[in-house]
Amino acid sequence: MTKPLAGIQWALVLGIAPALFGALSAPAQVSPETRARLLREFEEKNRSKQTEKSTDSERPKADPNVGLEELRGNLSKARTRLLSDRSKEAKEDAARAALLYADSLLRLGRTEEAISVLTTTLAQGADEDRIIPFLVEARTSVAEDALDNGEWEKARVALDKAWREARLSRDSDLVGACARNLRDLMEDRALELFRKGDLSGSKEKAIEALSWRLEPEPIHLLLSRIAHLKDNHEEALAEIRAAARGAADRHALGAIRDIIERERDLERGYDRAELKGAIVLSPRGLAYDRQGLERALLSARETAKRMFGFETLLPVRLSLYQRNDFRVFTSAPTWAGAASILGKLRLRNDLARGRIQDLEVTIRYGFGLWMADIAAEGKAPAWLQEGIAHQLAYPLGPPNGGKGEIRKRLNNGSLPSFRSLEGSFLGFPDMLEAATAMVQSQWGMQFLVEKRGLGVILSLLVALREGLSPEQALREVAGFDYDALDREWSEGPLRGFTTNPDPDRSTLRSLGLISPMGSYWEQ
Fold first, then answer.
1. What is the pLDDT of residue 493?
2. Residues 6 or more apart whose Cβ sits within 8 Å of residue 303
3. Tens of pLDDT along 478-523?
4. Residue 309: which region, alpha, beta or left (left: phi > 0; alpha: psi -120 to 50)?
5. Does the pLDDT at position 82 exceed 50?
6. Residues 10-20: pLDDT tens digits?
7. The whole model's pTM is what?
8. Which residue, 489, 498, 516, is CA-closest to 400?
9. How are strands ordered across the β-sheet holding 344-348?
10. For residues 61 and 103, is the Cβ–Cβ distance under 8 A?
11. In Å, how far from its chain's centre is CA 270?
């Protein structure tokens, strides 16, 4: 089973917002993609602005044959003249001398000293139109270096000073670019905290980003996401309505609103329990194996960490539904026993009361869907998402009966390509088709791991999160396009690329509760 409501992704609703599903823990340093997005607009606008200006207004470049002492002396003379001569020429000469000296300092990596030279000269009355653009550029450079080291607050201070100094100029584009840098920094910080599970900190930074009143729709979506994960349904719906005011696709936002409303109505009066690493909502008075569920969730988390390197501080938010409620909510066929919709894991309550072996397999499968969903922020293709989920549920690999079916279809040319398995598996006409697609997905994922190592799967999910298409992510991370993947993978099964022991029958039976792969191959 893949995501029952395919295409309902917060990230793609507006076409302009960064995706909002992430709860993946991130390293201390900020990614190059984040830094590039933070600085790109400023650099582009500043570059075009400098092109429009005359040659006289461009920053002079220091002569490498002229030493620092001479440049400092020239600046001192220009400043002394400026104290008694407030003419335009004196102001321009002081600015020019400051820029020459600062340029040499910047070349030596003495950025803070260069900033001090520029700010002091500016305060003395030098030509602000010449100094401010390059003072802003130096501040932005400080911010970029700070982001390299994960120093968010230092970056914020540098960009805030750049914005305040830009306001002293008559360049409205420069002011706007600096404001956008601050807004983007706060949004990036909000997303970073969200991915680390700090929902309160994420909300605080999102509100700060919203205060700039620049491109508010993705911020409202993030705030809605935070409220939804906290089960604050009315707040989540209010933020959805705010996002819809400027949305490019209100129909998709309407679908998200409908899901939240359905969940609110269905879970009204549910009991709430906090387990280790999980929050569980269930119908009032429902009996289920809480300790077994806790152990199963812990096992799934540990297995995902060991198998794929996936970690998150965000607790699993799990709902137990009556069988009919589950089917109505997810719009899934009867074999679907677990689903990840809008970042929450949902499970049929009858499965939570089964044998512990069944419960563990069920949870591992559901956790795999949840993991792929939040790591790729809703952008994982079905074959990768299902491959991950089935590998967690059935770590020995696809059952031999499924591999036999794959080989048969390879021989008669009826096996679908991986490209065709990007979309939902719910449209397959019968259980055999779906079960075969599950086997192919898991086997294809195992092929990538054997060729490129365990880290390739998490890297693929992160690349998808950053906005690459599935084929682009495959090409950049694993070195395959879809045609190469189909060709090289198909050669593997035919020559016995992977061999596994006979299936674990109890595990296969348990997997049949939640996936057509198990239910079909045990027949």
1. 67
2. 364, 392, 395
3. 999 999 999 998 887 655 545 455 567 777 777 877 788 888 887 7
4. left
5. yes
6. 333 333 333 33
7. 0.78
8. 498
9. 271-275, 278-282, 316-321, 344-348, 338-341
10. yes
11. 31
Q: How does pLDDT run across 267-313, given as a tens digit for each residue?
A: 998 999 998 889 999 999 888 888 888 999 999 999 999 999 898 88
Res. 333 pLDDT band, cuts 50 70 90: low
pLDDT at 115 (0 to 100):
95
d(CA 206, CA 229): 15
Confirm if 188 and 30 have CB atoms less than 8 A apart: yes
DSSP letter string, 51-65: HHS-GGGSPPPPPTT
Give yes or no for a contact between 338 and 514, defined as CB atoms under 8 angstroms apart. Answer: yes
Q: Tell me how far apart the terminal alpha carbons of the chain are, to the nearest angstrom.
A: 19
Question: What size, in residues, is the chain?
Answer: 523
What is the pLDDT, as a whole number, of residue 61?
63
Alpha carbon 435 to its chain centroid, in Å, reads 30
Amino acid of residue 135:
L
Residue 152 and residue 28 in contact, taking contact as beta carbons nearer than 8 Å: no
Residues 6+ apart with CB under 8 A from 256: 8, 10, 13, 224, 240, 342
What's the confidence (pLDDT) of residue 462?
92
CA distance 307 to 315: 19
CB atoms within 10 A of CB 91: 23
User: Contacts for 240-246 with beta carbons within 8 Å, 24 or more apart?
Assistant: 242/216, 243/13, 243/14, 243/216, 243/217, 243/218, 245/217, 246/14, 246/216, 246/217
Distance in angstroms (rounded) separating the CA atoms of residues 466 and 379: 9
The single-letter code of the amino acid at 116 is S
